[in-house]
Amino acid sequence: MKKIAKQKVVIRRDSLIPSAFTLLPKIDKRSFMEFEFEGVEGRGLGPSLEFYDNIADEFMAWSTKIREKDEAKGVTELSHPMWRHAGENLLFPAPVCLKTFSQEKIKEIYEVFRLCGTIVAKAVVDDRQMDLAISPLFWRLCLGA
Questions:
Q1: How far apart are CA 106 and CA 98, in angstroms?
Q2: Which CA distances in Å does 62 have to 16, 93, 107, 114?
Q3: Is the C-alpha dihedral spanning 106, 79, 142, 27 positive or negative?
Q4: Which of 48, 69, 85, 94 is the one with CA 20 to 30 A from 137?
């Protein structure tokens, strides 16, 4: 029986999403990921499960700031969430108006969704659970079904 290689990754607990962006190019699809938090001694299964749990919370809470121009009100800063809560509190991507958002904001939203997809895929491959109640409709769209 062939032993599965482990890929140990150190990540910052106080900035999970930015830290996860730095590990994106380093992810080895054939290795089992094991997470360790910077400045904390623990490693192995516990921190890895904690990482997936905490980053799922970060993805659910993530939003980006946009500026909306209104002739009457002037410039207003709004928060655009990553997800819209569908029936039974299932998550579906919040729509993005290409006329309202700058190219930089659209790219930022795209990159966060790409990161989320990569982390979810890695969790599936490594047989880890993530507490992201993604809508079955969105899963079907992702799978092209």
A1: 8
A2: 11, 12, 15, 13
A3: positive
A4: 48
pTM, rounded to two decimals = 0.84
What would the pLDDT profile of 48-89 be if each residue is shown by its tens digit? Answer: 999 999 999 999 999 988 876 666 666 677 788 899 988 888
One-letter amino acid at 82 equals M
pLDDT of residue 16: 92
CB environment 52-82: b (16+ within 10 A), e (fewer):
bebbbebbbebebebeeeeeeeeeeeeebeb
Q: Where are the beta strands (DSSP E) in 12-139?
A: 32-37, 63-70, 74-81, 83-85, 91-93
Q: Which two tokens stand for residue 17?
A: 């999403």
